[in-house]
Amino acid sequence: MRDIKFRGLTQKGEWIIGDLAKMMHEDNLCIMPVSFFATRDFGEEDEIGNPIIQNELAIGGFIPVVKETVGQFTGLTDKNGKEIYEGDKFSASDVCSEYYLVEWNEKEARFQLDLYGYHEHTGEGGQEVIDSDISLCDENCIEMSYLSEMEIIGNIHQFS
User: In the 8-state DSSP scheme, what is residue 50?
Assistant: First the structure.
């Protein structure tokens, strides 16, 4: 059976992994960590100064995440055994400016790798123009199965 889970960044920049949920009254996404059956400190105090904590899966189980950072687990791992999620980057070559990015292909309903980097061209007036972080692939640059031989170098949501 395939392990379906998601990863997202909190406002504090911490990764949370678990089940994805959408808040009904807002347009926010939350993740319920897989192992949230533990004490959670909500960072608040009651009327006599004791920290407010919860020891069960309840209200505090859903942790808000930044919507744009949410990515699904692909079911694959890199050469070091690290789980691969949407938005992860892999080195394309010794050239620092080129990288592969794990993305979801909506049309084909599958994960794929796209090659990103820079493109040099002549702009209006004849000056050299460099566009960065653009897709350099037309179709399927590299098969996802090759990722088990590669190493994650970061993701598009955090600097590595």
Answer: P
- Cβ 62 vs Cβ 43: under 8 Å: no
Per-residue pLDDT of the chain (160 residues; tens, 9 = 90+): 778 999 999 888 889 898 898 877 777 888 887 655 555 556 677 777 776 665 544 444 678 899 999 999 999 999 999 999 999 998 866 555 678 889 888 888 888 888 877 655 566 777 665 555 555 555 545 677 778 888 899 998 875 4
Listed in order, strand segments (DSSP E) in the chain are 6-9, 15-22, 29-33, 40-45, 51-54, 63-65, 71-77, 83-85, 88-91, 99-105, 110-122, 128-135, 152-155
pTM of this structure: 0.70
Place of tokens 């820079």: 118
